[in-house]
# Entry
Amino acid sequence: MPLETIIAGVMISALILYALLGGADYGGGVWDLFAFGKRAPAQRALIAQAIGPVWEANHVWLILVIVVLFTAFPPAFAAISIALHIPLTLLLIGIVLRGTTFTFRAHDAQRDDVQRRWSLLFSIASIITPVLLGIVLGAIASGTIRVENGVVVSDFLKSWLAPFPFAVGFFALSLFAFLAAVYLTVEASQPELQEDFRMRALIAGFAVGILALIVFLLAGTGAPTVRAGISRSWWALALHLGTAVVAVGAFYTLWIRKYRVARLCAAAQVTLILLGWAFAQFPYLVEPDITIYSAAASHATLRLLVIALAVGVLVLFPSYYYLFRIFKSEVSAAPPSASQKLS
Amino acid sequence: MNDLLAARSQMAMSLAFHIVFAAIGIAMPLLMIIAEWQWLRTKDEVYLALAKRWAKGTAILFAVGAVSGTVLSFELGLLWPGFMRYAGAIIGMPFSLEGFAFFTEAIFLGVYLYGWNRVPPRAHLFAGAMVAISGALSGIFVVIANAWMNTPTGFHVVDGRPVDIDPLAAMMNPAAFAQTLHMTLAAYAATGFVVAGIHAFMLRRDANNRFHKAALAIALTVGGTAAILQPLSGDLLAKMVAKNLPVKLAALEGQFATEKGAPLRIGGIPDEGAGVTRYAIQIPYGLSILAYNDPHATVKGLNDFPATERPPVAIVHVSFQIMVACGLAMMLVAAWAAWRYWRARRKKSETWLSSKWFLRALVLAAPLGFIAIETGWVVTEVGRQPWIIYGVMKTAEAVTPVPGLVVPFIAFTFLYIFLAAITVWLLLRQVAASPQAFGSDGQEVRLAA
# Structure
């Protein structure tokens, strides 16, 4: 397999992991905004407990995507950064506000009004950031970023200020909210809280279905090449079938309260959606002018990067497993005692 | 403000903001694990309380550092796409390695901050050590990339494009060792002095508080050791600059005329129009000795470089003077502390922290390390201008064609002012309470009651 393909595979894997892990952290912020009823404080506490120890590690998947992109495919990074300067800048502001307000909330006075203010900022940032992330990915897939002789010639607004990227943005938001709600049904220790998040997961899952349809329809004119890929390729039928099976599986298992299976199905659903996009766009990084081959760095760089990634993963995965075993295993599912809370 | 200036301002502001959190992120974990290790060794609860208190502050600072670092990794492309298109393949490697170091740091910080009651004490200390090591490695990898911008190696230029790229040779560039050593020591020195200064301030009000005494001792041991070693690494770096970046050496010394047996100028204001540095105290032969170990060595002056390849001299020279002054002051305070400690030990008394003047000096020295870090980076970055890659690519060639860059510059400036204000406010709230007594779990009894 060519090195370019291996590295592109690493990038899409890192992006999938970012969606499954970091995405769910954003989804947690969505449900923080929609916490209501007499269990609202308990819902918020569960969300904070679920995100707290892991969000910074989960966030690094995005950094990994970026550094691998600019190491292995520098012209693609440059072109995307120029063409999507505005949504990427807004995305950064969202990332900064999400992370800092979450931390500030944990360490500021525990008075209700202070906490409410930080919560509001945190949840708004958690909603806007995934939308912007989706807009960026949608614009990259849309074929509207044009590059001639290494110079971006497309408009700084038109490539992303369009229905298709925005539809992808809201689709990403619905997926993240769906993932978060499903995960929280497993992580909640009280049945009432599980029911709260089961309900939210079903609603979000429904929204995912509607938005998926809208994205698919808009892709007809908004991202014709990718749309052709996911409708006509040899793997398209298998992909659609697989996605349909896990999507229905997620609904069914949520319905019958088999939350662990539901979590697996939801994660598989998001994975298949991103894989479908990646296959449809392959080998384009920025469709239609930049491929992984035309943008690839020298062979020496790619080879060294693959070695570094392989060694890095050997350190990373055991550490990650350790983190999740400590904070996400059943033994630790009980709410933390007062002394364990940071603030 | 034109777009190039706006882009440079945004990058400078982002770096100046992030470096504070990055330096603290490198050094604070070391202070925390020393305190925790002391607790495991002595079972003295004061050390556990200290580790927990420092961990709380670090949690806030690390979060701000993580997101402001993310901003920088995107800004490389958002502001300097020309640079990244050219250099990504050459210096992407240290950034990729930094990615993994950052992963390790974030994972074990999660374990450290939230795992006090979930993992055994030794595993907890191990997590802290992993944070300290990976934090230092993160910083080293990023500074290696910056060092390459000063002394680019690992490629050849053919028809304006880099070929024969060797990312490992790029990482081993001539500036890499001296620059990473200097910055890593700076992180420990600056953080150690700030923490020592804060606890010295508290001790002046509450002279017998063991908590602050323990904190001060640890912070000053780390910060003071680094401060005493720092001039040596500075000398190494200056000799590297003299050899590889002669125009930068001339700018930071305010040396306009080429001179045999050049003097070392202390202070002074360079007048670029007249081509002289005025009001400086001159030490004969000083610069020739420091740069080349030879009193009669010739130092090439700014006048012998084309005007289009000179950095702004005044800001570089003045920043360099401030950095050196701060560094020397910190070294003297560290030496004073070592002497007081040694004398107190010989007399078998615990009085080394009893002097009002000594505590006052520590309070005054608290911000010096960070002033030195900020001015030091001004020297490094402004002193490399007009190049983004020294001798290879001008900064103006690297900037993005996107118009209206003043808008994101202003937006990020306001965002960072807001974050800085909240961070300081939250940390002050935590520092304000002086703990007096400690429960068996290191919780502060007064706060728990």
